[in-house]
């Protein structure tokens, strides 16, 4: 299949990009790595009037340190993420999840920001960003604003990004050596999207869990936090018993879909099992 | 129409393309590089894999305009030399030696993905090869001889393989290979 | 264990090619991208076709307006079914399995009514692929929906809506084989009435999609009143005959070429609607045309495979001796009968008894119409279904009898000393040793250690349980003895043709009627000819796939190429030698009777030094200056081989499976198989065929399923949802062979193309069940999705139906999908 025709803009600065989006007409799509957008356009499930290609926009690619945060440019590719020394040190949860995204060719082109802005609940990175309370820096005609992950994901394939806005960078907390992480993904074949996945980060103090952050992939129209489990884990001794008990609450408040790969009750069951496994691994059990 | 300048398999091209033209269609239909093929429309099968500025990508999921100013290497450009005397890339040779292909439709993409994998990981295990080519579907081989081929190429490229390229596929191999060797 | 050595062979004889792991001649072009796929073809003035496809499964076309599409830029013509109704005829069905089989006919493009999603409704012809695709969006169609028939068990009920108004029911045919009536066995009902133990099961053979990697593609070039068609087909010869009959183009005015073809697996054993449409349109326009499908089109409209509901009963004595087998099938035909749609289950009819000595057997099958794409051949075609049913029910019987499943099999299988053995289905099995293959397979997989580990995991209550499953199978290959096909009402014979041309320089051209699409015929045929003629392997060129070069042939399917086509090559080579012998005798001034032919050379017995090579004879007869009177100056020869019997590969496949009882995830831990495919011409190719077959058989067990939603949309319409396994999803295979030569051909080859696919599926399912049977599970529907396994373990039953909605992955919102519904080629529903 061949995409329907569209006008093409290739800005080199964020300002040019915003202008191109503003000038692009009714239906503008922003092309980051294109690994989700181009297939959808080929199938003509999307037929935008204008495509604004961010590939040449300067300053959107790469990872830098700012105080206790890592700043990941929206156009940083998955392959970049996997080889970045800062992420290797402070962002292992992102790295682990990124390793499971699609395949090596797709990871060459696909971008961190593109995957988040696409907001596919079956995508692996939104739940990670949510679990880490990432901050999303959004550029618009009126300047920049920063949105918390909890507010960024609005609905199925829908984010807080308004027409004419652009996600430019994502700020992640640096996780120090007292944190353990695990991305536990469950799918049927290598190429399949997650049926359910769990992103867990656990901070230990001595033999106890001081803090737990748990993001759920594909357990509703947006990524979700397993808040009840997180709360139940705070202050408990690190043991399989405590982790299992807390993980039993992982599906609370979720509303997963029914599709080919799984029906909702099974997804809720999986969320509990995978949360137990992810937290146990993150806690060093 | 948008003008693009690309270098493909060592030759430079300047062409006008519609922005919606996929890189693979540009390669096949405008440059006649029909060695690269299209196997699906959802970026799953990997048959269209080429190298874009040295890295494997799926050319059905890249617009030709995005390749502007880039170097593209296709399956037609990985051997050195021309015609019957060309020297095959070690990965090409290993696919032949290890019977890593049957119908051959996935083979160009499979070889391009494998070369990319070996550049990153020159000595992959069986499992690492299997994961490394997970973006490429093959319907004929069951993958086992592809895994064998990639590992044989890795050994050859790092100089640990037997000098004789006709040597039996033993170095990196398994019970099944012995079985083949016994029969031969 | 597999070497075929002849200790008596003289030491100075040239090494035999047959048996060597020759690297393939085909590879050179395939690994360098110098391949001639049909879609690579570009012809001057070539026009491109795009097909508008029905988005509804069953409906009347009430309005169809193509006028706006005709005005689009670059559009040369737009055709509807109405435009082509008078000339399109019906796609052929070559296998009327019963005299009263109902065939409603199969238009290449719908005229008034559509009967499955994806059926062609209109065709745009444009100067580019892009222009054609764009113009599809300008076609306006309305459908009056009709009730959709999807479920076979409902479709055969009285009062069910009909797929075709012209028929009185949705049943196309009722096919029966009764061993008692055929005189090949005892009365089946009697056997069941007297049985000490009976076990009955209902198994579901889910619908699969062949999913060859190269999408189908057709190019037709008209030249005067002649036509050349290039097609990505397995069957250029059959296609030529059928296309001529359908279109009225005289057969001698139609040349069909299958260039490099990227896999088929039965999926390209078809006369496709688009092949006919390309011919019709090329004839109308007098211009070359091309159609290449997208993957979405391929999954939606190329024929599917399997799709049976199997009711199977087995009767036995308490000691495990089997007494009778009764099979009743519902086989989903889909909306139409394509080339061998009705025959696929009939091919399986004779294989349900497997390797076991059943005294009584009865088989019944109803072919049922539904509003889905037609089914037809897919790797194994009828035999995987049969093998699955028998190998699954043997395990169920073992459970019922509290016997070891292998012990039950041993008790009932045909002994090595009993070959040739005539089965209850009337087939004469040629050769084999089931015990030997089984013992080797047990060793290969490390059986005792796996059983020990299984016990440990059970005792410790490990959440990951281990199971071991068997499949001790046979199949019928080498399709086929023409008389047998005739007795089954098949529309053609099963012979194969070869010819050998001895060129003046001594090089050899071998023309085969068996058209490869990945199997390696060029290599294997070269090995055969090198041995037969004593010429170097490199001196042999194998030609195929072009009806102007290879005028007679019946193509590649049913593991027939080597067994039938390879034998034709042997027969042709024997004729070449015979003809050359006369000339050699003349040149050597010796009596023919005194000539010996070894290593490519005729020598005179008792006269050392006197001799002439067959390649020299070729030059001599080209010059034709000096040859005996009364013969023609040629040593070229051709041969047609019609086998007298099928061949019967067999083997033992063992799968060790881990089942995560917490999640239902299944993972193959080890897989070992020992196959007997008769004499092996090229062990590398044989091993490759086994590997590929295993991958597809395992994929049926674990991954693949074509699913339609309640409206008849194919939910698994892309590789996002139709799960073809990647390298990381499949295990390492440990393979081995035993060799018992086939008795029906001089090569001794039995056929290997389908073995892995036929054998593996039940081994995998039996293994998963063995892992969780102690938890109360007795069946799990294929594919063994984690959800099904989990439900079976924790909720009982067989895991049940899957939800029919597509995965939400890849980000097509419902709104976007609806907006795209004007583009039926993408059909909206699959993302």
Structural class of chain B: alpha+beta
Query: Which word captures the global form of chain C?
Result: globular
**Could you give the distance between the termini of chain C?**
50 Å
Total E-strand runs of chain C:
28
> How many extended strands of chain B?
5
Side-by-side strand order of the widest sheet of chain C: 3-5-1-12-9-10-11
User: What fraction strand of chain B?
Assistant: 5-15%
The CATH topology annotation of the largest domain in chain B reads as Ubiquitin-like (UB roll)
Biggest sheet descriptor of chain B: 5 strands, mixed
Portion of residues within helices of chain B: 25-40%
Radius of gyration of chain C, CA atoms, in whole angstroms? 28 Å
Task: Tell me the number of helical segments of chain C per DSSP (H or I, 4 or more residues long).
Answer: 23
Named at the architecture level, the CATH assignment of the largest domain in chain C is 2-Layer Sandwich
Number of helices of chain B: 6
Q: Compute the gyration radius of chain B: what is it?
A: 17 Å
Envelope shape of chain B: globular
Q: What CATH architecture of the largest domain in chain B do you see?
A: Roll
Describe this structure in words.
Chain A has 285 residues and is of the alpha+beta class. Chain A has twelve helices and 14 strands. Chain A has three domains: 7-53, 2-Layer Sandwich (Uridine Diphospho-n-acetylenolpyruvylglucosamine Reductase, domain 2); 63-173, 2-Layer Sandwich (Uridine Diphospho-n-acetylenolpyruvylglucosamine Reductase, domain 3); 179-282, Enolase-like, domain 1 (2-Layer Sandwich), CATH 3.30.390.50. In chain A, helix 10 runs antiparallel to helix 11 (240-247) and helix 11 packs antiparallel against helix 12 (264-282). Chain A is globular, with a radius of gyration of 19 Å. Chain B is built from six helices and five strands; from the N terminus they run E-E-H-E-E-E-H-H-H-H-H. Mean pLDDT of chain B is 90; it is low at 163-184. Chain B has 184 residues and is an alpha+beta fold. Chain B folds into two domains: 2-76, Ubiquitin-like (UB roll), CATH 3.10.20; 83-157, DNA polymerase, domain 1. Chain C has 23 helices and 28 strands. Chain C has three domains: 38-146 and 211-301, Aldehyde Oxidoreductase, domain 3; 383-476 and 646-795, Aldehyde oxidase/xanthine dehydrogenase, molybdopterin binding domain (Aldehyde Oxidoreductase, domain 4, 2-Layer Sandwich), CATH 3.30.365; 495-641, Aldehyde Oxidoreductase, domain 4 (2-Layer Sandwich), CATH 3.30.365. In chain C, 63% of the residues are buried. Chain C starts with 26 loop residues before the first helix and ends in a 12-residue tail after the last helix. The chains are: A alpha+beta (285), B alpha+beta (184), C alpha+beta (831). At the A-C interface, helix 12 of A face helix 4, helix 22 and helix 23 of C.
């Amino acid at each position: 299949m061949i995409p329907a025709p569209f006008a093409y803009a290739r800005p080199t600065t964020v300002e040019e990009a915003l202008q191109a989006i503003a000038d692009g007409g009714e239906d503008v799509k922003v092309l980051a790595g294109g690994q989700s957008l181009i297939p959808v356009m080929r199938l003509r499930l999307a037929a935008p009037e204008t495509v604004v290609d961010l590939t040449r926009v300067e300053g959107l690619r790469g990872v830098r340190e700012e105080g206790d945060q890592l700043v990941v440019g929206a156009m940083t590719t998955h392959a970049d993420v996997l080889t970045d020394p800062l992420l290797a040190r402070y962002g292992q949860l992102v790295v682990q999840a990124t390793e499971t995204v699609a395949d090596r060719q797709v990871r060459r082109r696909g971008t961190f920001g593109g995957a988040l802005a696409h907001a596919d609940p079956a995508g692996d990175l939104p739940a990670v960003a949510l679990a880490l309370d990432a901050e999303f820096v959004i550029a618009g005609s009126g300047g920049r604003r920063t949105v918390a992950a909890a507010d960024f994901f609005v609905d199925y394939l829908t984010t807080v990004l308004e027409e004419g806005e652009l996600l430019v960078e994502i700020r992640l907390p640096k996780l120090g050596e007292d944190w353990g992480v695990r991305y536990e993904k469950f799918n049927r074949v290598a190429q399949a999207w997650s049926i359910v996945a769990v992103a867990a980060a656990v901070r230990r103090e001595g033999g106890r869990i001081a803090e737990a952050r748990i993001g759920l992939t594909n357990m509703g129209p947006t990524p979700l936090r397993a808040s009840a489990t997180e709360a139940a884990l705070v202050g408990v001794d690190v043991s399989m018993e405590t982790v299992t008990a807390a993980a039993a609450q992982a599906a609370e408040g979720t509303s997963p879909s029914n599709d080919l790969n799984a029906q909702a009750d099974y997804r809720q069951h999986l969320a509990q099992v995978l949360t137990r496994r992810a937290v146990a691994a993150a806690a060093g059990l | 129409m948008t003008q693009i300048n690309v270098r493909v398999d060592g030759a430079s091209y300047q062409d006008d393309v519609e922005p919606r033209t996929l890189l693979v269609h540009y390669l096949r239909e405008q440059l006649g590089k029909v060695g690269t093929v299209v196997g699906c429309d959802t970026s799953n099968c990997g048959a269209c894999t080429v190298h874009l500025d040295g890295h494997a990508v799926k050319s059905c999921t890249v617009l030709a305009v995005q390749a502007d100013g880039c170097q593209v290497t296709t399956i037609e450009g990985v051997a050195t030399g021309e015609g019957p005397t060309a020297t095959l890339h070690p990965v090409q040779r290993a696919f032949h030696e290890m019977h890593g292909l049957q119908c051959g439709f996935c083979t160009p993409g499979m070889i391009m993905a494998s070369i990319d994998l070996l550049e990153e990981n020159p000595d992959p295990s069986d499992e690492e090869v299997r994961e490394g080519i997970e973006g490429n579907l093959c319907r004929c081989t069951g993958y086992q001889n592809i895994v064998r081929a990639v590992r044989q190429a890795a050994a050859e490229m790092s100089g640990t393989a037997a000098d004789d390229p006709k040597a039996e596929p033993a170095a990196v191999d398994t019970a099944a290979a012995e079985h083949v060797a016994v029969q031969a | 264990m597999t070497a075929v050595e002849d200790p008596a062979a003289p030491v100075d004889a040239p090494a035999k090619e047959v048996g060597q792991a020759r690297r393939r001649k085909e590879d050179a072009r395939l690994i360098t991208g110098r391949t001639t796929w049909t879609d690579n073809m570009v012809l001057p003035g070539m026009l491109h076709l795009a097909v508008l496809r029905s988005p509804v499964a069953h409906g009347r076309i009430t309005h169809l307006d193509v006028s706006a599409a005709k005005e689009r830029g670059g559009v040369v013509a737009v055709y509807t079914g109405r435009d082509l109704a008078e000339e399109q005829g019906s796609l052929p069905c070559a296998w009327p399995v019963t005299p009263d089989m109902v065939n409603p006919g199969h238009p290449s493009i719908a005229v008034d009514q559509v009967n499955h999603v994806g059926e062609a409704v209109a065709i745009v012809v444009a100067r580019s692929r892009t222009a054609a695709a764009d113009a599809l969006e300008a076609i306006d169609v309305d459908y009056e929906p009709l009730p959709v028939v999807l479920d076979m068990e409902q479709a055969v009920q009285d009062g069910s809506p009909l797929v075709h108004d012209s028929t009185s029911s949705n049943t196309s045919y009722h096919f029966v084989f009764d061993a008692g009536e055929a005189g090949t066995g005892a009365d089946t009902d009697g056997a069941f009435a007297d049985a000490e133990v009976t076990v009955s099961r209902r198994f579901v053979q889910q619908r699969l999609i062949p999913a060859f990697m190269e999408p189908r593609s057709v190019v037709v070039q008209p030249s005067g009143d002649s036509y050349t068609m290039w097609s990505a087909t397995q069957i250029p010869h059959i296609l030529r005959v059928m296309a001529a009959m359908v279109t009225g183009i005289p057969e001698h005015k139609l040349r069909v070429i299958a260039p490099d073809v990227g896999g088929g697996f039965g999926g390209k054993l078809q006369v496709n609607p688009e092949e006919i449409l390309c011919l019709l349109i090329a004839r109308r326009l007098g211009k070359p045309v091309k159609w290449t499908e997208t993957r979405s089109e391929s999954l939606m409209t190329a024929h599917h495979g399997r799709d049976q509901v199997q009711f199977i009963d087995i009767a036995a004595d308490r000691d495990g001796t089997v007494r009778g087998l009764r099979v009743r099938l519902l086989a989903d035909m889909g909306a139409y009968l394509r080339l061998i749609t009705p025959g696929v289950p009939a091919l399986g009819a004779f294989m349900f008894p497997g390797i076991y000595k059943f005294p009584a057997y009865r088989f019944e099958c109803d072919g049922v119409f539904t509003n889905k794409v037609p089914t037809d051949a897919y790797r194994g075609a009828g035999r995987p279904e049969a093998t699955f049913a028998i190998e699954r029910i043997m395990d169920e019987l073992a459970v019922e009898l509290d016997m070891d499943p292998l012990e039950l099999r041993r008790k009932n299988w045909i002994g090595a000393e009993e070959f040739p053995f005539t089965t209850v289905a009337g087939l004469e099995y040629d050769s084999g040793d089931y015990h030997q293959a089984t013992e080797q397979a047990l060793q290969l997989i490390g059986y005792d250690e796996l059983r020990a580990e299984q016990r440990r995991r059970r005792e410790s209550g490990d959440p990951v349980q281990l199971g071991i499953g068997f499949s001790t199978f046979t199949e019928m290959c080498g399709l086929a003895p023409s008389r047998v096909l005739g007795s089954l009402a098949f529309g053609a014979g099963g012979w194969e043709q070869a010819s050998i041309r001895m060129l003046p320089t001594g090089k050899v051209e071998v023309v085969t009627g068996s058209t490869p699409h990945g199997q390696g015929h060029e290599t294997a045929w070269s090995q055969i000819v090198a041995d037969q003629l004593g010429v170097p392997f490199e001196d042999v060129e194998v030609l195929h796939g072009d009806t102007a070069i290879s005028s007679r042939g019946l193509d590649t399917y049913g593991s027939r190429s080597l067994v039938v086509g390879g034998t034709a090559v042997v027969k042709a080579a024997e004729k070449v030698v015979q003809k050359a012998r006369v000339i050699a005798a003349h040149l050597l001034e010796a009596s023919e009777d005194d000539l010996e032919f070894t290593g490519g050379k005729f020598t005179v017995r008792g006269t050392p030094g006197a001799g002439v090579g067959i390649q020299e004879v070729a030059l001599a007869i080209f010059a034709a200056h000096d040859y005996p009177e009364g013969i023609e100056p040629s040593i070229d020869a051709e041969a047609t081989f019609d086998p007298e019997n099928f061949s019967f590969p067999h083997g033992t496949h063992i799968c060790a499976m881990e089942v995560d009882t917490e999640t239902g995830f299944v993972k193959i831990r080890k897989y070992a198989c020992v196959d007997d495919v008769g004499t092996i011409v090229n062990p590398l190719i044989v091993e490759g065929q086994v590997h590929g077959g295993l991958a597809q058989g395992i994929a049926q067990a674990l991954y693949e399923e074509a699913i339609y939603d309640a409206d008849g949309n194919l939910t698994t319409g892309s590789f996002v949802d139709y799960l073809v396994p990647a390298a990381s999803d499949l295990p390492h295979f440990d393979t081995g062979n035993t060799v018992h030569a086939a008795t029906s051909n001089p090569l001794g080859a039995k056929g290997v193309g389908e073995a892995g696919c036929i054998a593996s599926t039940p081994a995998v399912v039996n293994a998963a069940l063995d892992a969780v049977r102690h938890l109360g599970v007795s069946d799990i529907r294929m594919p063994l999705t984690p959800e099904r396994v989990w439900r079976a373990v924790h909720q009982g039953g067989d895991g049940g139906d899957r939800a029919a909605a597509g995965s939400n992955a890849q980000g097509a919102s419902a709104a976007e999908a609806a907006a795209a519904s004007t583009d039926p080629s993408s059909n909206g529903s699959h993302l």
